[in-house]
Amino acid sequence: MHEVEEAHEVPVIIKLPENLANANEIAILIDNNPIQLAANILPYKNIKSIGVNVRLEQDSLVRAAVLDENNIWHVNSKKIIVNSPGGCSLPSCNPDKEICEIKELGKIKLNKYQRSSGNWRFKISINHPMDTGLVKNPKSGDFIPEYFIKHISLENIKGDKLAEADTFGALSANPILIIDFIENLDVSSVTANDSKGKVFHLNKK
């Protein structure tokens, strides 16, 4: 069991045992969320761990479902207690009560470094509101329509995909995707598509 204070941005790290390093698929699910599937990740190279920041509406089991090379699912979970619920249905920032920073929509950042374990961490952050469709505008009382990053892909300089992810409104605003690859890879581009059809790129060629 793990306890968190802030329901709008809860870090989730999934560490894979050696026998699942070449997993075909990893799904992150939140039992008690109105949006249960947070992300579905397809790694095309061996990985040690993945991480995302998620929203939690209330206390919940957070599950990781890992599909191995033999198409067998392995599922594990952890209970997370939220001291301030409402991560999916309350605004992460109320402009009537605080200063809300406005960021450049779709700006992508990529950081890479080698961890003490020897694995290579790639941390992708994307500026995006990730609206769930469940939050009311504090002035009009109308629901703010859902609007979220729905797909992220990482490629090398040859255009080969190294990993991709389908993502949903259960991810936090300005979502973060962390992938720890076992080998040192050349990630030269990141592409993100959102639910309004906008495409955002980061090229590091």
Explain the overall architecture:
There is one protein chain. This protein is an all-beta fold. 0% of the residues lie in helices and 45% in strands. The chain has strands spanning 2-4, 10-15, 25-30, 37-43, 47-54, 60-67, 73-82, 108-114, 120-126, 149-155, 161-167, 176-181, 189-194, 199-203. The strands form two sheets. It has a nine-stranded mixed β-sheet with strand order 1-7-6-3-4-11-10-13-14, with no helix packed on it. A hairpin with a 5-residue loop joins strand 10 and strand 11 (161-167). The chain is globular, with a radius of gyration of 17 Å.
User: What is the terminal-to-terminal distance?
Assistant: 43 Å
Which spans of ≥5 residues are poorly predicted at pLDDT below 50?
none
**How much of the residues is beta strand, in percent?**
over 45%
What form results from the Cα inertia axes? globular
DSSP strand count: 14
Strand order of the biggest β-sheet: 1-7-6-3-4-11-10-13-14
- Which value, in Å, is the CA radius of gyration? 17 Å
Assign the structural class, choosing from mainly alpha, mainly beta, alpha/beta, alpha+beta, or little secondary structure.
mainly beta
What is the helix content? under 10%
Order of helical and strand elements: EEEEEEEEEEEEEE
How many helices? The count is 0
